[in-house]
Amino acid sequence: MGLFMIKTLAAQIKDFKKASILTPVFMILEVVFEMLIPLMMASIIDDGVEAGDMRHIYLVGVFMIGAALCGLVCGIMGGKFGATASTGFARNLRKAMFDNIQTFSFSNLDKFSTAGLVTRLTTDVTNIQMAYQMLLRICFRAPISMVCAMSMAYMINARLATVYLVALVILACILFFIIKRAMKYFQMAFPKYDELNASVQENVSAIRVVKAYVREDYETSKLKKASQAIYDIFLKAEKNVVLNMPVMQFTVYTCILLISWMGARMIVQSELTTGELMSLMAYCMNILMSLMMVAMIFVMMSMSIASARRISEVLNEKSDLTNPADPIYDVPNGSIEFQGVNFSYYKDDSKAILHDINLKIRAGETVGILGGTGSSKTSLVNLISRLYDVTSGMVLVGGHDVREYDMESLRNQVSVVLQKNVLFSGTILENLRWGDADASEEECRRVCRLACADEFVEKMPDGYHTYIEQGGSNVSGGQKQRLCIARALLKKPKVLILDDSTSAVDTATDAKIRKAFAEEIPETTKLIIAQRVSSVQHADHIIVMEEGRIDGYGTHEELLRDNEIYREVYESQTSGGGDFDEKK
């Protein structure tokens, strides 16, 4: 699982491989130049200062400045290439995830919450970006710096260098214990961001409802709890991580004291020079700081493991729906047939929500679909455009199984106005052209007339160039529905499905829309899911759904005569204004 996850993420480095290779190369070169400086410093003290040789001091000083400048340049280049590689890697991850999400079927999307996907595309990718930059820079620099410094220290004096080695082992054990305790908290923290984002997203998108019901305090309290949960987890983690610094400082100062005491005695006994002692001090700091950087890497990596796993889940998710090997690209007509269809969201007939559906609809017919809440009306029509696949049986459009079509071609000819109408930020024309990107303004005006949207669009200050806010918040529910119907009509579909898409429209406008459909798109098969009998009573046929089964099928008159459910609903709505779900 770990190797597969790494392979999944590494595939997104792509065109930033060069920068990913050059970064550690420059970091290693920086370490090499840094390691030379303490040796030069020792030479200046021993062979220059103590010998009174100014020429040697100047000469070695020039080399020392040159090494420092070379190290500086290598550090800058390493930082530059590291930033390029990490930001490019993050960009590729976001693009790969977003592209893969676009291929998801509805059942794939059901596995992830919207807030969870947003967190993965933002917070989780940022964590991976930071971890990757540290990996390229510090993860190469720190261990090599530690090994080089230790080797140089042993070359100068093995006995004093052993002090470093003992301190290094003790410090490594303590830091490992601290980080191990902190890791479990970091792994718990990031999934909590999903809850926080969900709370924010829900509140902002439904702010009008929140204000209408004066629920600001409740929403604030809910956000505070989600934020507090993240705070508490990070606080526990940081309480462990914060111990790194005092432990580090204690070890450093202990080493300095031991080296100073032992080194002074060795200088008196002529076993060590002053310059060599200064070099050992420099290497002491280098070794222990490198160890601290390694500890930081482990902390960052522990934080990013959970993020890496969540990103991999999205990247490795494969759509349940795929095109056949040799797809059909042309939909002959709008005829629809269900043959022994059973459907379950869990791919299990025992949990089916549609049972033994057998149905034939001729091209150009208008068919109404009525049913109580939870009777699987929407699930039935979702199978037509292959938003889901049947569990068993077959759905045919234009005489062919929907699984034989190229999905894009099928969905271009089976236009669906979903139950939840969505408009995007942009002008009305830009929203309409989701149906046909190349549609002229006159074509957009025509479909708006069919959907009875022209009457309010033309009254707006900028007409069809009026800007729609995100989610269509600056238009009413009925206006949003009519614009979504117009957008669907612009696709010139062979099948048009309206999933309760006129519920926010008054009955007079509803009647105008149905009349326009009958006159303007007679060859398009129209399926209308509705709660009002008046919306479907003039249809060629009406389907009555009950608990995932077809309880009745026929004309308005036939169902009034033969179907008890339809008759009760009709009578309740015409006599008392009730709706489908009311029981008399």
Concise structural overview:
The protein is an alpha/beta fold and 584 residues long.
Give the helices and strands, then pairings:
Layout: H1 2-10, H2 17-49, H3 54-103, H4 106-109, H5 114-156, H6 158-205, H7 207-212, H8 216-241, H9 244-268, H10 274-316, E1 336-343, E2 354-361, E3 366-371, H11 377-382, E4 392-397, E5 400-401, H12 407-413, E6 414-417, E7 426-427, H13 428-432, H14 441-450, H15 454-457, E8 467-468, H16 477-489, E9 495-499, H17 507-520, E10 525-529, E11 541-546, E12 549-554, H18 556-562, H19 564-576
Parallel strand pairs: 3-10, 3-11, 6-9, 9-10
Antiparallel strand pairs: 1-2, 1-4, 4-5, 7-8, 11-12
Helix pairs in contact: 1-10, 2-3, 2-5, 2-10, 3-5, 5-6, 5-10, 6-8, 6-9, 6-10, 9-10, 14-16, 18-19
